[in-house]
UniProtKB/TrEMBL annotation:
Pathway as given in its UniProt record: Cofactor biosynthesis; tetrahydrofolate biosynthesis; 2-amino-4-hydroxy-6-hydroxymethyl-7,8-dihydropteridine diphosphate from 7,8-dihydroneopterin triphosphate: step 4/4
The protein's name in its UniProt record: 2-amino-4-hydroxy-6-hydroxymethyldihydropteridine diphosphokinase
Pfam family, one: HPPK
Cross-referenced Gene3D superfamilies: 7,8-Dihydro-6-hydroxymethylpterin-pyrophosphokinase HPPK
Classification of source organism: Bacteria, Pseudomonadati, Pseudomonadota, Gammaproteobacteria, Alteromonadales
Amino acid sequence: MARIYISLGSNIEPEQHLQAGLTSLRVCFGPLRLSSMYESEAVGFSGTNFLNMVASAETDLNIAAVVAQFKQIEQNHGRLAGAKKFSPRTLDLDLLLYDHVVCQTPVVLPRAEIVNNAFVLWPLAELAPELIHPVVDKSYARLWQEYDKNSQRLWPVTFEWPPGLTF
């Protein structure tokens, strides 16, 4: 079984879409570990704020199958196939890490956003602080400690999951 880390984000009815996305991930991958929820300004375009978090699961699927599953979940929750990269979205699921794999295809791993975007790095550092980035050879806690926190606005938000909802 491979340990995967997934970035989740939404700025269109984000509470609804993140809950639905997490429920779908739970069905596909089993129990999830979750970071806190963070709010951030849109990066790369002008738009409403995003809610972001990171989840972790285990899978026996290969990388291509995991990514295909994410695309299907996104489409099931209203994301339009072929939508431009920097735009509002109902649900964005990105594979950040697949064990310690470093690859260029079928996707680039580890995902570059880990070290470039606070909305990915902070929740990942919270969820897996001692895990070592397989390329830069630093823990995610250290990467977050060294990150220029003035470069992107990000703050934790209180998020109450509906009663009975488990991941």
